[in-house]
């Protein structure tokens, strides 16, 4: 692994291309995915939201394309205990910890290597006590663009102490194009999930796993995201969908599809597969005048699919080992998520 911790470096930008002339653009600022350009019949289309330049990417606080960590999503009251030891971490969404704290991984400059035109590897060392978390953590995130038009993101990490680690990617997709007037609500979505996690207004789960049957959270058959939008208390309190779906356990092998998104015109489809047990669906409810590549982004300009352990899982051991984010010392942990584009 290559590691580099200098904060004031200029972020590097790299491009990956495949034999079909598909291209993705990545930056060492937050190990972020900032463009995804599909060579469609009617021209090239960028289907991920991103900043117009690196200065704006540094300023934005909505995690455009970023690798999120140490712990994605929320930790209630920014507190947890492991083996009887209590920890307080950065409370950047008072009183809770969101996406790893005030100075989380999306703001760091990662070291980068590019072994080929179709792969880039980012790495980072998070010191013991970083944002209040125990143990030194080494992280490696690789992006591969395959000739099957897949973007495969692989995560590898190792900690020196028992510590929660929950890494994800926070790219927002708009398959109609990042500058389109069409929004997330105009896309059709399928999610292979029987349960979702209700939360309070701050996004903290109650602990209940609620069956999607008969609810507006049932995406087991493809439907427009906007069809049942803001029709229930759970959505109204979050301003839209910002909820975790517990994925069908038979599908979380990294190969089978756990979710599919279709463009409004049906000309682009994206299939997601992952080895992670749950996925946050976020409809960009708080994209308020965010500087984008071709326009200012507003609520619902894009939709994020954050594959991860469930929010606040460190405080819910009753959910079981499969859903626990706690990494044991000196073990190497790996996970991956694949976004395949069909056009």
From TrEMBL:
Active site: 170, 306
Gene3D superfamilies listed in its UniProt record: 2.70.98.10
InterPro entries: Ald1_epimerase_CS, Ald_epimerase_bac, Aldose_1-epimerase, Aldose_1/G6P_1-epimerase, Gal_mutarotase_sf_dom, Galactose_mutarotase-like, GH-type_carb-bd
Reactions this protein catalyses: alpha-D-glucose = beta-D-glucose
Pfam families assigned to the protein according to its UniProt record, in alphabetical order: Aldose_epim (PF01263)
Enzyme class: isomerase
The protein's name in its UniProt record: Aldose 1-epimerase
GO CC terms, sorted: cytoplasm
Domain of life: Bacteria
Hydrolase recorded as keyword: no
Gene that produces this protein: galM
Recorded metabolic or biological pathway in which this protein acts: Carbohydrate metabolism; hexose metabolism
Membrane-spanning ranges: none
Gene Ontology biological process terms, A to Z: galactose catabolic process via UDP-galactose, Leloir pathway; glucose metabolic process
